[in-house]
Design the sequence.
């Protein structure tokens, strides 16, 4: 496993990449009354997190943006969660073969240490999975039942009633967490806290990040910044929608440098925490 250089807070020092994010002990930072909500994104220097595939219309990760080092740190963040927050688009992409199913922890030889870490730290073998969806039109991966994962569906109060009833009939919990069809960050976090969850990891996109920031519900943001430019005319960035204003203020609390990956370009691993108004 490679070593990385911790730049901030100083003084600079080398450390093993493996365990760098497990050391943050995120599962201990929240309570059911105030869950700890954290997200992770990979971005290029020009702010691209995905480009739109002209054949499918779906977003895809640009080649050369990710690396084994970044993936290891993603899994370490995932391993500390009581509940993973994802969305219907991700489940549709899994079913269509466009994205890998990464909703389980420690099930492969290269990351079995994370399953042991969860056991050693009193966490369930696998996290629950929250699916946010306005349409309620998505498949449920078979992997969730195989690994005994609790599945909760969140939607708005104007969601299709027949679809909600069908999901409940299949044994899934359905919670209302927003006005209209959209799921909103604040109501979602309160609903998950009410179910006893303390650490919530967002495996979701810009829309969920935006609503978490606007509702002051995000606790921490991790960003891997690959040292390359992507370009492209139809792209996704970290945030969509209207300007965030003061809601978008963050402070960098930690910065690491990986000089080798991806593809010899190098990358930063940064940790940000929102600055609350007042």
Sequence:
């Amino acid at each position: 496993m490679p070593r990385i250089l911790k730049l901030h807070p100083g003084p600079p020092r080398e450390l093993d990449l493996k365990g760098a994010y497990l050391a943050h002990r995120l599962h201990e930072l929240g309570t059911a009354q105030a869950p700890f909500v954290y997200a992770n994104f990979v971005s290029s220097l020009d702010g691209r997190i995905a480009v739109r595939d002209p054949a499918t219309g779906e977003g895809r990760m640009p080649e050369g943006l990710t690396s084994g080092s970044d993936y290891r740190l993603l899994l370490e963040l995932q391993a500390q969660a009581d509940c993973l927050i994802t969305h219907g688009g991700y489940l549709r992409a899994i079913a269509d073969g466009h994205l890998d199913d990464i909703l389980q922890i420690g099930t492969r030889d290269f990351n079995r240490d994370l399953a042991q870490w969860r056991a050693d730290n009193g966490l369930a073998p696998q996290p629950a999975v929250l699916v946010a969806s306005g349409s309620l039109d998505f498949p449920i991966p078979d992997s969730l039942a195989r690994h005994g994962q609790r599945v909760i569906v969140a939607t708005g109060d104007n969601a299709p009633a027949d679809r909600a009833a069908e999901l409940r009939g299949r044994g899934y919990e359905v919670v209302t967490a927003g006005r209209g069809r959209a799921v909103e960050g604040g109501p979602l976090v309160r609903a998950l806290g009410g179910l006893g969850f303390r650490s919530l990891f967002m495996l979701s996109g810009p829309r969920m990040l935006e609503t978490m920031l606007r509702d002051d519900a995000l606790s921490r943001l991790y960003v891997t910044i690959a040292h390359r430019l992507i370009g492209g005319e139809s792209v996704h960035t970290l945030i969509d929608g209207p300007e965030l204003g003061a809601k978008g203020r963050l402070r960098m609390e930690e910065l690491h440098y990986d000089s080798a990956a991806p593809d010899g370009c190098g990358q930063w691993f940064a940790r940000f925490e929102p600055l609350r108004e007042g």
Q: What stands out?
A: The two ends are 43 Å apart (CA to CA). Residues 185 and 229 are 31 Å apart (CA to CA). The mean pLDDT is 93. The helical segments are 68-79, 88-96, 112-120, 142-146, 161-169, 185-194, 206-214.
